[in-house]
Amino acid sequence: MSGVGAGRAAPRADDDGSGEPSPDAGVEVLTARDVPLGGPRAMTVRRTLPQRARTLIGAWCFIDHYGPDDVAGTGGMDVAPHPHIGLQTVSWLFSGEIEHRDSLGSHAFVRPGELNLMTGGHGISHTEVSTPGTTVLHGVQLWVALPEEHRGTGRDFRHHAPSPVHRDGATIRVFLGSLAEETSPVPTFTPLLGAEIVIGPRATTTLDTDTAFEHGLLVDQGSIRVEGTLLNGAELGYLGPGRDSVTLTNETDAPARAVLVGGTPFEEQIVMWWNFVGRSHQDIAEAREDWAAASDRFGHVDGYPGDRIPAPALPNAVLAPRGNPTRPKGSTR
Ligand code: MN
Predict the structure, then answer these.
(1) Ligand 1 centroid vs 270 CA: distance in angstroms?
(2) Which residues make beta-bridge pairs with 107?
(3) pTM of the model
C-alpha cells in the first residue's frame, strides 16, 4: 500500500493506420503495475497512479484497480486496521461487497454503484474486508489529496448512491462533482470529478467537461477510444486541461466500462508514503511514529478480529515532495 513507486508512461501511436498523429492526439497512456496488497493471501491490484510520469490528476493521487477476482481463489480483501492522513479514500465497486469500519465509528457496506468517501484529515484508521457472500470482487480504490488548508481536517465518512444518467448509449453514475447535467451532493475540498461510465457496444458518447479540469479515464473492461487514442483494459488515459468535451467510443461488441476522474491541477507538491499524504518527510515521520505509538491521532477501529498493520520502516533517504511536471515531456504530442 506504499504509494511511491516506479512506473512509466507509454506514448501510444494513434492507431489510425495512417502513421501520422491525428490532430486531436494528446492522450497520455499510463499503464498499470501489479502491486500485492499484502496479507496472508495477498490480493493483487493494478496501480496506475502515482507513477514516475504523473503524481496527480486534479487532487486524485492514487488509483488502484482490482478484479474481477474469484474470491474463492484469492481470499478476497482483508485489510487490517491501518492509518491515513492528509487524504480521502474513495471505494467504488463493480461487483462484490466490502465491510468498512473506521475510527470515526462508521460501519458501512460498500456496494456496487455506491460511493463511500472517507476523509482521513489529521488522522483516521480503518479496516476493509470483503463480505462472506462476495464471490467476485471487482472495483477501484482512489485517493484524493487534501489541499494544505484542509489537510488537518477532522475525520469524516460519506455515502452516496448516484442515480444513473443515460446519454448516447452510455450509463453514467456521477459520484463526485458534475457530469452529464448530474451533480453529486457530496462536498469536496478542491474541484473534482469522479464518475463511472458504461458505454454500450460500438456506442459513442460526447460529454461536456470543465476546461479548467484535467482528466483521467481508467478503462475497466473493453477498449475505449478517447479523443483518437485507444485505451485497453487497466490503462489510464490522461487528458490535460483546456478541453470542453471528451468523446468516448466503445470499440467492442460488449459493454465497456471506465471510471473518469478529473479536477483542477493540484498546485501543491506532496509527499506520499505508505498510507500517508503530507508535505514533508517530517510530516510522514511524525505520522509513522504516532501510529507506532497507538496515538489517539488515529483512534481505534472496533470489530476487527486481528492486529493492526505495522508501519513499514522509513527509507534511509529523505522523502522528497513530488508534483506534476508543468509540461509533460515526450509523452504528449
Ligand atoms: Mn485504507
Answers:
(1) 18
(2) 101
(3) 0.90
